Amino acid sequence: MDFKVVKFGGSSLANAEMIKKAEAIVRSDPRRKYVVVSAPGKRFSGDTKVTDLLYACYEAAAEGREFEPILAEIRSRYDEIVEGLGAKLDLDAEFQTIRAHLRSKPQRDYMASRGEYLSARVIACYLGFEFVDAADFICFNSDGTFDWEITNRAVFAALRRVKRAVVPGFYGADEWGTVHTFSRGGSDITGSILARALSAAVYENWTDVSGMLMADPRVVADPRTIALITYKELRELAYMGATVMHEDAVFPVRKCGIPINIRNTNRPEDPGTMIVPAVEEEKDQGEITGIAGRSGFSTITIEKAMMNSEIGFGRRVLSVLEEHGISYEYMPSGVDTMSIVVSTIDLDPCRNQVMNEICHTVQPDVIYFEDNMAMIAVVGRGMVRRKGIAARALTAVAEAGINIRMIDQGSSELNIIIGVEEKERENAIRAIYAEFAK
Ligand code: ASP
Q1: Which residues, other chains included, contact 176 with Cβ-Cβ below 8 Å and sequence gap of 6+?
Q2: Are 151 and 195 in contact (CB under 8 A)?
Q3: 225 CA from centroid of ligand 1 (Å)
Q4: pLDDT tens readout for residues 405-435
Q5: Is residue 217 part of a domain?
Q6: Residue 431 is part of a domain; what is its CATH number?
Q7: pTM for this model (two decimals)
Q8: Phi, psi (5° rounding) for residue 324?
Q9: Ligand 1 centre and the CA of 383: distance in Å?
């Protein structure tokens, strides 16, 4: 169907001025029928998000401390918005309900959800769209887990006949009416759920950046924006720390191939980043889509003569890790050597036991651990068709004088993982970026 679900994040709705920008965006395209909103975010650096004020207010009430000053601060954020928009809305009754809740048995998730709830009330009134409460169709189980199937049907039933709606993000309710929230940043998930249940043409996610960048701007000066990225590539980069939206928000739309468009509320003319299921080969010119790197890895290296002919060697080593609840990240190996890359935080509490148990189970000739490793992912769907990409990435790192400690290329040829010492992580990213962004 040719309509869009659009979600505006907290920075896009932080004050009346930003909401007016969001309004212009919604009105400029009649396909923007369903609007999912976050709670007002920071108006300036050092400001506090409304959600954080709500958590603080809950904490005060739950501990029997004075909560009125914080509630007054929250109220003033909304009053400022309502006034700035010239909206005809009185929030007295809403705040009375919240106050009564705080005085009885305050619930953390309920309080946090009021940020999105009030935001949606105000914006629905301002736009003249219908307000539809997420508590009516985003369905949680009473243990706080989310129920996909029931929600999918409930969203369809609740919204299919509504022409234009504003829906609060971040929360839903269980069958007893108790409110539950997703984890922080969860309004992204609400938008994705709606897009999937209603079969939207696109899920637009409006934020304060013009899309995903090819590399971390704290590492590379002024990196290029990624115009087009597949879900799989996004997942690879997100795993290495490059995120533009809540990770769980990708799955609902990915399931039915709905593209996500990341856009900038302050620069609506920018096309942003399109996240799509696949890209047709002929249209695909790119080599590398993005580069991301993460620190905090350790390598366990095991050497044993004739390791390759010892059936079950790898399994026995991995079962030691499994028993300690450690998941491994990569496992490059040679004929008689095997290296396992794990997260240092996972390894630390049981380092000695792991060492002893591996020695006991497989009797290696040598075993050693190396800490302070960083993994850099060079991600690009184009690698599979083009020759020499890996060579260029590795040469760039080597020419920057960085010692490459590990290389791992996934069998789908979507990424190359380059292991370097933690202190070289940023230099290596810069070197690879410079090679491919020329
Ligand atoms: N307001 C919530 C938060 O700050 C959810 C969201 O904005 O997506 O985490």
Answers
A1: 142
A2: no
A3: 24
A4: 999 887 777 899 999 999 999 999 999 999 9
A5: no
A6: 3.30.2130.10
A7: 0.90
A8: -95, 10
A9: 36
Instruction: Report how far ligand 1's centroid is from the alpha carbon of 197 (Å).
Output: 21
From the alpha carbon of 39, which atom of ligand 1 is closest?
1
Pocket test for ligand 1, best of 50, 184, 207 (most atoms within 8 A of CB): 184
Q: In angstroms, what is the span from residue 362 Cα to ligand 1's centroid?
A: 48
Same domain, residue pair 36 and 127: yes
Answer yes or no: is 418 within a domain: yes
Q: Is the CB of 39 under 6 A from ligand 1?
A: yes
| Ligand 1 lined by 40 (C-beta under 6 Å) | no
Residue 307 has pLDDT above 70, yes or no: yes
Ligand 1 neighbourhood includes 332 CB (under 6 angstroms): no
Domain CATH code at residue 79: 3.40.1160.10
User: Which ranges in 256-375 belong to alpha helices (H)?
Assistant: 313-323, 344-347, 351-362
CA of 182 to the centre of ligand 1 (A): 9
Residues 94-101, mean pLDDT to the nearest whole number: 97
pLDDT digits (tens, 9 = 90+) for 238-252: 988 888 899 899 999
Angstrom distance (rounded) from CA 207 to CA 38: 11
- Kindly state the percentage of the chain with pLDDT values over 90: 88
Cβ–ligand 1 distance for 168 under 6 Å, the answer no
Structural domain includes residue 13: yes
Predicted pLDDT of residue 182: 98
Same domain, residue pair 249 and 306: no
Q: Which pLDDT value is given to residue 326?
A: 96
What domain count does the chain have? 2
Check pLDDT > 80 for residue 159. Answer: yes
For the chain, the 3-state helix, strand and coil shares in percent, each to the nearest 5, are 45, 20, 35
Q: Ligand 1 centroid to 187 CA: how many Å?
A: 6
Hey, what are 36's tokens?
Answer: 């999912």
Cα–Cα distances (Å) from 404 to 26, 32, 391, 418, in that order, read: 49, 48, 13, 7
Length reported for the chain? 438
Average pLDDT of the chain to the nearest whole number: 95
Report pLDDT digits (tens) over 316-370. 999 999 999 999 999 988 889 999 999 999 999 999 999 999 999 999 999 999 9
Residue 270 included in any domain? no
Average pLDDT over residues 360-387: 92
3-state class (DSSP) for residue 143: coil
Domain with 77 in it: 4-209+244-254
